[in-house]
């Protein structure tokens, strides 16, 4: 080969080397991109979940803390928190068609479950947040004094009505004929009582808490019986009983057990964190606008309420509490008269 051929060969070799290096470099970049995608995907190994939780309640704290403190992500879940439908029928439909995956809510959902709602309870999340109240100057001093009186609640079939009903039953008063029920918006209940439109109210926090603290209402029954009061227990307020529960989509439980377990673990860790950090939880709820701040709903009062709820995910005792409320709701006619309570709760409970 002549000198020119040798030079050309060398140039060709250098050029080919450059192409190989460039290709390798391009491949390296491509691999890096794939690697990043892989890392991102692996951080959500249990997929995505949608939580209908944005409704401004302090009770919803586990949803927000599991998201904000990274418990969902830690357990391989990409969470999306959306508005909670006001209509329970829309909520039921969302779980049936796979739109929603998990929520926290009270024993109000038992009749919905009996009527086919595709959700399963997975444990109690916190103790009570509902009280039966009367104005400070009322002649009513016990649940027995409510006979023949009118009671305001946020709505028919609301948990406020359920709690008042349980108290009435334990006082031997027929909740259907022994009192008159009236419905008002949450923020109008206390005013309705002060105006004499109703004799008592049964409502949720922070409205109940505000009525007591600012308007000096008296507590007749409180379903947060964390003090294990015998007096409240005699009114049907279960000792250390869970009021709100974690509910999972039945579809998720059946089709993706690993995802279901990851969801439960996330809420358990969130509840534990809340119980240890009530003030920090209040900051997050208010600063991130999960709970609307007002002159009353401030850090001090939100922290006090969080402390009183004793957040903790209770699987075994939660089931016993749910069974207790199912019996009470059956007695009141909110569940079918032929309801087999043991079967209903067993079928409606997440088995780990």
TrEMBL record:
<feature type="domain" description="SsuA/THI5-like">
    <location>
        <begin position="61"/>
        <end position="280"/>
    </location>
</feature>
<dbReference type="InterPro" id="IPR015168">
    <property type="entry name" value="SsuA/THI5"/>
</dbReference>
<dbReference type="Pfam" id="PF09084">
    <property type="entry name" value="NMT1"/>
</dbReference>
<protein>
    <submittedName>
        <fullName>Aliphatic sulfonates-binding protein ssuA</fullName>
    </submittedName>
</protein>
């Amino acid at each position: 080969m002549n000198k020119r051929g040798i030079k050309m060969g060398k140039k060709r070799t250098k050029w080919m080397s450059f192409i190989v290096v460039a290709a390798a470099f391009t491949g390296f970049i491509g691999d890096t991109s794939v690697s990043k995608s892989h890392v991102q995907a692996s951080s959500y190994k249990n997929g995505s979940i949608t939580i209908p939780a944005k409704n401004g309640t302090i009770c919803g704290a586990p949803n927000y803390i599991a998201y904000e403190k990274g418990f969902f992500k830690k357990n391989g879940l990409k969470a999306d928190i959306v508005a909670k439908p006001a209509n329970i029928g829309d909520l039921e439909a969302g779980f049936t068609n796979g739109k929603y995956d998990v929520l926290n809510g009270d024993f109000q959902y038992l009749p919905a479950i009996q009527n086919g709602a595709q959700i399963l309870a997975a444990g109690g999340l916190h103790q009570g947040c509902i009280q039966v109240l009367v104005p400070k100057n009322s002649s009513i001093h016990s649940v027995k004094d409510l006979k023949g009186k009118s009671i305001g609640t946020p709505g028919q079939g609301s948990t406020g009505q359920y709690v008042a009903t349980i108290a009435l039953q334990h006082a031997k008063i027929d909740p259907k004929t022994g009192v008159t029920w009236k419905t008002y918006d949450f923020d109008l209940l206390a005013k309705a009582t002060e105006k004499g439109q109703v004799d008592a109210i049964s409502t949720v926090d922070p409205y109940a808490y505000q009525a007591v603290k600012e308007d000096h209402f008296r507590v007749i029954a409180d379903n947060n019986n964390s003090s294990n009061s015998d007096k409240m227990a005699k009114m049907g307020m279960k000792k250390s009983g869970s009021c709100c529960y974690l509910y999972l989509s039945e579809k998720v439980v059946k089709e993706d057990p690993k995802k279901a377990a990851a969801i439960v673990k996330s809420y358990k860790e969130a509840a534990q964190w809340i119980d240890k950090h009530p003030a920090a939880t209040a900051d997050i709820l208010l600063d991130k606008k999960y709970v609307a701040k007002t002159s009353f709903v401030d850090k001090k009062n939100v922290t006090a309420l969080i402390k009183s709820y004793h957040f903790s995910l209770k699987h075994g005792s939660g089931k016993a509490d749910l069974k207790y409320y199912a019996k009470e709701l059956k007695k009141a006619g909110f569940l079918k008269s032929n309801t087999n309570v043991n079967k209903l709760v067993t079928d409606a409970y997440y088995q780990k």
